[in-house]
Specification:
single chain; mainly alpha; Serine Threonine Protein Phosphatase 5, Tetratricopeptide repeat; two-stranded antiparallel sheet; 6 strands; about 50% helix; disordered N terminus; SusD/RagB family nutrient-binding outer membrane lipoprotein; SusD-like_2; lipoprotein; TPR-like_helical_dom_sf
Length: about 475
């Protein structure tokens, strides 16, 4: 069913692209039968197709920075070479589609036609939630960036501070949950198939993740937002059946991890994460990496030069790719936000004194959900894992926070975007930069530098944003919540 809907909606999208391509020739090429108003279900499907894309949300690069992954031949990124990665494609792609959904369901001239694909309010609310998620991924990579004036056809939008963006996203997510009505559900929803309760849980859960991210820079706001989200209408993700995930049909629409390895072999699971998993008897190791014929995950050493990486792979033909092959099929499931991550965020909030929830209960439940999510749960093995000295909660608050934060880092795998963010915020685990680093500081990057187009196309606003960064527009400058 999902594949059929994707094909149908992308067919509409192709029509729209063709109509747009003829717009520069006045009326001479006007087709009276062409679709001049976007089909909002097609826009939604297109935006959700790469909801979890490693390339789109930066998970590959971020996963290299937080040492989930290691490069096997072209090793520049894990040696911290300085890229200039523009965000242009994000604004022109999914974000623009989502804004178009909002615009067409708001404009009196188009809202009746748009309502053929679900009530106006429901479509707007869903688009606001997905748009908020997209902006969160972006601002956590760059910091200050266009937000309030973005997607408004302004050629030189101002850069909002990351604090302003976070405040805006908290507001968007809360209002969107309240905006859902009892009308028809949005067509084109390939994530939850129109289940608006699950979208409410996603929005509230995303607020929990965001709130804990403020634990050092603004704990007062973080606590208030966490408590508000925890008690919000619609609930939170607390069971794996409510996980936000994309189930790909395969064929024309393969999973992003399938595409990562389709004819390529650029990445392996790193020795950093694998050693952590084996040290604690963590059964997730066989889901996170590809076991060899003997059932062992053979990690790729992190941070090698190109020559050393090629020599290693030549000498270890059974090196392990990222994820068990089951999770790299064209028709595999990719996770966006899960019950495990939510329970572990609740464990940290409890350890911080933000809630009266039991830290140990939230912690154990989060890890149980993670093992079940990855299909490795066995009660006896899980008990052994939980009693491991590296996992078992100690008696001091520092030890408790370190253990909880370590498992948050582990459980976000392979989501490098969130893994890198959690490491930057907490310093857990204690990652060591590669000694082969090629950047001037030799340190793990803390942010993306702004794209090369910005100084030319939006010079005044770019310069204003750079002036707020300690040390300027570098990988070492810290974003707002990175304390």
């Amino acid at each position: 069913m999902i594949r059929k809907n994707i094909l149908k909606t992308l067919g509409f999208a192709s029509v729209m692209l063709f109509a747009a391509s003829c717009s520069d020739f006045g009326t001479m090429n006007d087709n009276p039968n062409a679709i001049l108003t976007p089909v909002t279900s097609a826009l939604l499907t297109n935006a959700l197709l790469d909801f979890d894309s490693p390339a789109n949300n930066g998970s590959i690069r971020n996963g290299l920075y937080c040492q989930y992954f290691a490069e096997t031949q072209y090793t520049e990124t894990s040696l911290y070479a300085i890229p200039q990665i523009g965000w242009d494609g994000n604004y022109a792609g999914s974000l623009y589609d989502l804004q178009n959904i909002i615009n067409n369901n708001t404009d009196p001239a188009t809202k009746a036609y748009a309502a053929l694909n679900g009530s106006n309010n429901n479509q707007i609310a869903l688009a606001r939630i997905v748009k908020a998620y997209r902006f969160l991924m972006l601002t956590d990579q760059w910091g200050d960036m266009p937000y309030s004036e973005a997607l408004q056809l302004k050629t030189q939008p101002k850069y909002d501070t990351q604090q302003e963006i976070y405040n805006g996203l908290f507001k968007e997510l809360k209002e969107a949950v309240a905006q859902f009505d009892g009308g028809a559900v949005p067509a084109g929803d390939i994530v939850h198939n129109g289940n608006l309760t699950r979208w409410k849980k996603f929005a509230n859960s995303l607020r929990l993740i965001m709130a804990v991210r403020l634990s050092k820079v603004d704990p007062t706001t973080g606590k208030a937002q966490f408590l508000d989200a925890l008690a919000s209408n619609g609930g939170i993700i607390d069971a794996n059946e409510d996980n936000a995930q994309v189930v790909y049909p395969g064929g024309t629409f393969n999973s992003p991890w399938y595409n990562t390895y389709n004819g390529r072999k650029d990445y392996g699971i790193s020795d950093v994460i694998v050693n952590m998993l084996y040290a604690t008897s963590d059964a997730r190791v066989n889901a996170y990496g590809e076991p060899n014929a003997s059932g062992t995950v053979v990690p790729m050493p992190y941070g090698l030069t190109r020559d050393d990486a090629v020599n290693y792979t030549n000498a270890h033909a059974d090196w392990s790719k990222i994820l068990n092959p089951t999770y790299r099929l064209g028709s595999a499931t990719s996770f966006v936000l899960t019950a495990a991550s939510v329970y572990l965020a609740r464990a940290e909030a409890a350890a911080l004194g933000w809630t009266t929830e039991n830290v140990a209960t939230m912690y154990s439940k989060g890890l149980e959900m993670s093992w079940k999510q990855w299909g490795v749960f066995d009660q006896s093995k899980f008990n052994t894992f939980m009693s491991n000295a590296g996992v078992q909660l100690g008696t001091t608050n520092d030890d408790i926070l370190t253990k909880v934060r370590t498992q948050r880092y582990v459980s976000f795998f392979p989501d490098g975007a969130n893994g890198w963010s959690e490491w930057r915020r907490t310093g857990v685990p204690a990652l060591t930069p590669t000694p082969k680093a090629t950047n001037s500081s030799k340190q793990i990057p803390r942010r993306f530098v702004y794209g090369s187009n910005e100084p030319n196309l939006n010079k005044t606003n770019y310069q204003a944003a750079v002036s707020k960064l300690t040390g300027g527009d570098t990988q070492d400058a810290k974003i707002w919540w990175d304390k």
